[in-house]
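Risk mitigation, structural track. In case the binding assays with NAP fail to produce interpretable data, a predicted complex structure has been prepared as a fallback.
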Amino acid sequence: MTVNPLPAGSQLLVVGGGYCGGRLGRRLQELGARVITTRRNPKTESGELAFNSDGGPVPSSESLAGTTHVLITAPPDREGRDPCLKALQSQLRQLELQWVGYLSTTGVYGDHQGGWVDENNDAPLEKLLRRSAARRRCEQAWLTSGWPVQVFRLPGIYGPGRNPMGNLRRGESRLVHKRGQVFCRIHVDDIVGAVMHCLALPAEQRPALLNVVDQQPAPSSEVISYAAHLLGCSLPDYQDFEAIAAELSPMALSFWRDNRRVSNRRLTQDLGYKLLYPSYREGLQGCLNEEGYSSD
Ligand SMILES: NC(=O)c1ccc[n+]([C@@H]2O[C@H](COP(=O)([O-])OP(=O)(O)OC[C@H]3O[C@@H](n4cnc5c(N)ncnc54)[C@H](OP(=O)(O)O)[C@@H]3O)[C@@H](O)[C@H]2O)c1
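Fallback model:
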């Protein structure tokens, strides 16, 4: 999208100018939008606001005046609560918000043994990983907040500076394969693109729940192999998941627990969004073009 999708006179607050929030904020600013971004520890010269729900600074109502749109990128805190609802809600209630976007995760679908899921597939909370159940509760809190909320459900996010080529270059890649297991992913610029696509739609056409995933669920070993092919480097030794499972941390193991293919039909067909990177192939090539081909 090459035009600012926000209506004239609007101001976007990005709560959490990290990987996705930072990229979206910069893109909209390039297009002439007014954007305020928060970080937990903003750099002095950055112009960002300090916000840390965990006992840190909280922006004043005055500093948020004029905000009409909000994008939440902060994940649930250690107790599973939403940082923004916990610590910034009263300031937000003083604004006349036209749109609230919430970046969530496709983890809320749980395990489907490789089957397809769409936005209608609600999994019972007790079948979800703890962090995914917390996420579902945060989604629910936003959806019932009374604001016009859109939840964007995201799979593994990759893009420039965050992709398998970094680990391959550093010699830290592991080629683990689990029979039948696939992962879904999305390039960060398609998150930016999909959010902007929704902002450009009339409010009544914006779905409350939206999967933002690419076209091609695939095993991680396939993606790493393609990354090595692009870099022209050799692959690490193949490791069978079952053989190494015992040495993995509970956190690492949990990433291998859920197996599902997430449909992007609502995004690409119902809403007519055209993916910039339909699969990891175009996406990794795009990363390489932006990062450069050097080995450092
Ligand atoms: N990584 C993935 O593959 C993946 C997959 C699916 C969904 N997601 C979710 O998608 C969202 C965006 O991902 P991302 O990669 O852009 O995340 P990110 O780079 O970690 O950005 C998260 C932002 O939230 C801020 N934040 C975190 N905790 C906070 C708190 N307690 N109070 C105030 N601000 C807080 C961070 O502040 P600082 O900038 O100061 O750190 C950061 O700016 C996250 O909710 C993430 O969990 C991620």
